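Regression test case RT-17, inverse folding.

Input:
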């Protein structure tokens, strides 16, 4: 290798990142297999699936988390994100509305979250945003 050559080679870092995510995913899959009630591990597994583009698997995890924590606004929000990534607009908006009903109110995150890009133009999404803005103004 010559002194001017880049190390690591350009293009290898994304592959290494993906390999690391796959490794972590396997660890969390084992943990969840052994301890299915471990909500933290299950949540992390769902996030890893999403990062890896395994959206159907992420959706399955999010559905499971909603079953385990039906009154948690964040689990419904994450479910909405998974549904949006899979193009399930109406189901996504149902989950998002439920999340807000349960107390989700992070408008900035909602508007910036790339997972929800596919539903931002939907009239129901716009109504949800306006309702959050209104409730924020009256609080």
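Golden output:
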């Amino acid at each position: 290798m010559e002194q001017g050559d880049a190390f690591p080679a350009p293009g290898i870092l994304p592959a290494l990142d993906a390999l690391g995510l796959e490794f972590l995913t396997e660890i969390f899959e084992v943990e969840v297999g052994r301890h299915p009630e471990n909500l933290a591990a299950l949540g992390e597994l769902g996030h890893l699936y999403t990062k890896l583009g395994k959206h159907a698997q992420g959706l399955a995890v999010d559905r499971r988390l909603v079953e385990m924590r039906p009154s948690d606004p964040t689990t419904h929000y994450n479910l909405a994100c998974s549904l949006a990534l899979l193009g399930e607009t109406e189901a996504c908006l149902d989950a998002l509305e439920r999340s807000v009903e349960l107390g989700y109110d992070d408008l900035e995150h909602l508007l910036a979250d790339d997972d929800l890009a596919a539903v931002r133009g939907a009239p129901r999404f716009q109504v949800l945003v306006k309702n959050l803005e209104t409730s924020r103004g009256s609080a």
